[in-house]
Amino acid sequence: MARPDLQTLLEERFGEGLEVPAALAQNDALQRIAGRASCRQFTDAAIDPQLLEALCAVALAAPSKSDLQQRDFLIVTDPGVMAELKALLHAQSWIADAPAMIVVLANNRRQRQIQSWHDQPFPNDHLDAFFNASVDAGIALAFFIAAAEAAGLGCCPISTIRNHLEPVTDLLDLPDHVFPVAGLGVGWPAETGDISPRLSGAATIHRDRFVDITRDQVEAYDDRRRAGQPGPGWSEAKARMYAEPQRMDFGKIMRKIGFHLE
Q1: Residue 110 burial (CB < 10 Å; 0-12/13-18/19+)?
Q2: Of 28, 85, 127, 178, which has fewest CB within 10 angstroms of its CB?
């Protein structure tokens, strides 16, 4: 079945009419991105390890701050390590059926090694070092998802891996200044996912100056989400979620592995 054109996909995603240049309407790459959906149901078909490695390499073509390349991928293939990692992430019940797992790492260690090897100081040992490595890893994560989906795979990132930083660090032998930004469950999709509505472009795309979102815009989005996903609404659900303490020890652990966050 033919994929809807780009304008139709964006209207479904954002709930509003968006003007799309005619030349882009049938652009396959943009249609794939605009119509993508996270995958949490997989077949039991195995994934060729060479395919995963190739997709990681493609993702590492992503931009990197100052070409520092402070991001790595860790492909989990050992059955014992896979079982332990899935046990840590059991809050996501679907992860048990993922045939492959990848951990996206922020790696600020390598730059410190390079400074030492070239007898250079490391005066930038502050919050920006942590931030740059984290953003590099986030960009690579997005590129991997796009690459995997272009290859026909499905995947879903798992940020709760950061709820288990110390056991994950021990399990994966991560050294100081290297930490997981996200895990990824990867596999061949068992079904086609639905497009998840997003906040409107009017609320999130700014021109020249920032304009704050209004409560009316959020409530309109809540109504749109409830139309397909019965429940309390997006904003109430997220407010409740962030009313609970999360990762209160994150800064402490980052300092423990060598980051200065001032």
Answers
A1: middle
A2: 28
